[in-house]
């Protein structure tokens, strides 16, 4: 797997906070991109964006919560760290329910923020890796012929070669050939691994 | 005197002659002409009858024994009761000297004997009418004079008539009462010497002096006058020049003791002061409440620069830990820290000023600066309420005179209400704060929102204490605003603008306006 270029996206209406955060993160060797409001970020958003969002919960115009909803609609997996003010904890809890990774209250200790950002970036990386793996599995599944797919489904259900041969009215030898092709195409030698792989993408395949 | 009574109502004619024959002839001549006829055959009787009945006309024989007609006439004229009767002498004497003497003694006319009845009737008729008219005129005059006297007597203000030297020629009873002296004692005295201890030194500057000597009308309040017993009292007076054509003949002075009035004013002023204090306290409480409501926003507002400072500080430290620190960049970052700390202290300063206890007092204020400051303050709320504020202030709006804190309090209150109203219906349109010149001497500041507007029945109730349309409202915001604006000499009100929403406005006096009528009582008028 190639290195993913991760960026910290800062969405903050207050110029001084935005500027200081940008300097702070850059001094911490982070790639930073800043936005002065939610709408600008939304317009700029693409699936290729990797990293995390540091998002002010209170902003004029579209606020942080709204942006989170819009991003969820776009199936964004970018982790969000909400920056909240005094008394915004109830909002932050709602934000967490909507999938935010964390929140931090202003004024914060910068170590705490940096720590949360590290965790978020790690999580993003993890998610992306998993997502890549799943996509690889799906790609492999999709390379199977219909007959191979059918045989694989029965393998996963635990049917013996003999049973498969009888039910499909083919020779046991033919089943064995299909089976070895499935294992080869899916890149595994173990039936248990095959089962795990296919189950991990089941919901994605069903969704299609 | 029966049927002819109407012709000469109650005209009495006295006939005086020692000769019964003559009396009879006169009587016969004048009877049935509508007169009341009295008869006397000597001087004493004539005087007695005349005194008791005051006849209009007396036909008086000159040649009588004991008291002749001249003497009777003289005595009639000496008696005020009979002085105005028309005396017509009757005599056979037909010489000039007798006639002249008769006229000299006050006689009105002369009839020669033997008399013609037509002449007697005509002369009596003429004199009766003249006397009648004269008496009516006198009666009217007397009535008029007594009316004037009654008025002068019943007026509770003292009235002096002064001559051009300040000598009191006339004083009404009230003047005596006020000066604790009799009217008689006052008359003839010098007004200035009597009522001012400093009259001897410099009479020129004294009240009324200019009226007496130069004919300038005066009007002063709260001057000190001396009474006859040398005690003093505060007085108010008006002095009007007394003119005869072009000539100055002194002055008329109307004055009154205002001791009680001043005491009432003092009490009123104390009450006003109390109201002022309570209003200021209420205003202060209201400001505290507002700040309480805005606390979350304020905390957010202060946290922004603090957060920035924390970040910049961390950055600076990292820069310094580098092997070759970039000093320029470090300097730049430290400058940013400084700017942010100013920003935080500016917010604190604004809040502290707003919370200050007694308001600072009136000042000349720039409307634009004041409203811009208020807008920044209100934006604490605007951010929380997801609204925005737009200022529309033309450059030619003049400065105003007002208490800056209290005006800001009112503007902030109206803006916050407007933001709340806009939020209620999720309006994206900004709250508009505008200032315009309103008529002579006033600036009108209006706060317009595009919220749900005011209920039909809201009306003047909006400004009544404890009336509220908000669930959590106390109903003291707008009443406080009204009392504050009224204290500045302005007015507050609302409109239902076309295009929806609500508009609240208030006016404040312009700084360079001609002296606005003050609520404070003026101590002394111009001399």
Automatic annotation (TrEMBL), chain A:
<keyword id="KW-0902">Two-component regulatory system</keyword>
<protein>
    <submittedName>
        <fullName>Response regulator transcription factor</fullName>
    </submittedName>
</protein>
<dbReference type="Pfam" id="PF00072">
    <property type="entry name" value="Response_reg"/>
</dbReference>
<dbReference type="Pfam" id="PF00196">
    <property type="entry name" value="GerE"/>
</dbReference>
<keyword id="KW-0804">Transcription</keyword>
<keyword id="KW-0597">Phosphoprotein</keyword>
<dbReference type="GO" id="GO:0006355">
    <property type="term" value="P:regulation of DNA-templated transcription"/>
</dbReference>
<feature type="domain" description="HTH luxR-type">
    <location>
        <begin position="137"/>
        <end position="202"/>
    </location>
</feature>
<dbReference type="InterPro" id="IPR036388">
    <property type="entry name" value="WH-like_DNA-bd_sf"/>
</dbReference>
<dbReference type="InterPro" id="IPR001789">
    <property type="entry name" value="Sig_transdc_resp-reg_receiver"/>
</dbReference>
<dbReference type="InterPro" id="IPR000792">
    <property type="entry name" value="Tscrpt_reg_LuxR_C"/>
</dbReference>
<dbReference type="InterPro" id="IPR016032">
    <property type="entry name" value="Sig_transdc_resp-reg_C-effctor"/>
</dbReference>
<feature type="modified residue" description="4-aspartylphosphate">
    <location>
        <position position="56"/>
    </location>
</feature>
<dbReference type="InterPro" id="IPR011006">
    <property type="entry name" value="CheY-like_superfamily"/>
</dbReference>
<feature type="domain" description="Response regulatory">
    <location>
        <begin position="7"/>
        <end position="121"/>
    </location>
</feature>
<dbReference type="GO" id="GO:0003677">
    <property type="term" value="F:DNA binding"/>
</dbReference>
<dbReference type="GO" id="GO:0000160">
    <property type="term" value="P:phosphorelay signal transduction system"/>
</dbReference>
<keyword id="KW-0805">Transcription regulation</keyword>
<keyword id="KW-0238">DNA-binding</keyword>
